[in-house]
Amino acid sequence: MRRRREGLGRQIVGRTLLATSTSVLMAAAGSYIFYGLLITYEPHYFLEHDPWRPEWIEVGAMGAICSIAVLASGLVALGFARRLVVPLNAVAAGARRIAAGNLSARARVSRYDMGEASRLVENFNVMAERLEAASSEISRWNSVIAHELRTPVTILHGRLQGLADGVFEPDPALFRNLLSQVDGLARLIEDLRTVSLVESGHLDCRPAPVALNEEISALLELLRPDLLAEGFPLEARLDAGIVEADAGRVRQALLALIENARRHAPPGLIRIAMALDADMVRITVADSGPGLPPDFVDQAFKPFRRADKTRKGSGLGLAVVRGIAQAHGGTARYVSDPARFEILFPRR
For residues 302 and 308, what is the distance between their CA atoms, to the nearest angstrom? Predict the structure, then answer.
């Protein structure tokens, strides 16, 4: 069991008292020993000399005793200073290495470190680990964003260059293809913006009383023709009632879940449900797909995570869904039996 460390202030007072007590006790004990020996071996000394005027032998003995007491006190203080300074120097050295670009640098932790000094080392190492993880995440984000942007930008550049050079004839099908690439870029940029706002805690969410079932019904009617043409009929079961929510953000989250089903599930029925009780709103989206692999469930709602990297998609949709749910004071989750995604937040 780990021994509970005392506070640094208490240890400083304790070690100061210990050093002082050591010097006083050694001086007192040394005096008793010296005069005891003097009386034992020179009993006539005090009869031959004025007891109120110390002789050189007494001055020398007192000097030696005080020197030994100061040395002992200094050794106690030195040990204390080392236990205090070593962790501080370790933190300072780690900070210099991190400032020089070595984010893997850590300060050494010893079980002999004291109180607050030890906690300083531990907290520094936690900060360094988080800084290293954040740096790695930023590098990964930059790489993934560049990859996601490269494909549509390359397609747009090639088609537009072909139009400019007369290689392609202008026709509606080509323009629809270009427009779909632009729409894909716009969705990617909006998802990146939303995830960035969620990560920074600045997502603009303005809940207001709204008949959420009507808002969702309107969205589904707008999506139904295109989804039906691709083999995805919609089934909606929505409880009627007033909910405190940002209707635009909820539509954005629901659209991301439906788009996720369209991209990754085989053609089949998509079921959307909203259940209201006195305290909670539960929005559910289920499709005819096999669901998420068990080893991917914990990663599903993190940015740029995809269970099947061979399929199209940025891996941002579910991160957007969870961010919007959290902005409403709730969460988003995957339930495996039966496979479905759920958005939950307080009804207020």
Answer: 14
Query: Can you give the residue range of the structural domain that contains 167?
Result: 142-200
Amino acid identity of 70? V
User: What are the tokens at 312?
Assistant: 């199209």
User: Can you give the pLDDT at residue 113?
Assistant: 57
Q: What mean pLDDT, rounded, does the chain reach? A: 80
Residue type, 163: L
Same domain, 255 and 330: yes
Q: What angle do CA 241, 247, 248 make, to 5 degrees?
A: 165
Q: How many domains does the chain have?
A: 3
The tokens for 97 are 């290495």
Q: Which amino acid is at 271?
A: R
pLDDT digit string, tens, across residues 221-235: 989 998 999 999 999
Residue 135 lies in a domain: no
β-strands 234-238, 270-276: how paired? parallel
Query: Alpha-carbon distance 288 to 270, whole Å?
Result: 7
Q: Are 219 and 248 in contact (CB under 8 A)?
A: no
Domain shared by 51 and 80, yes or no: yes
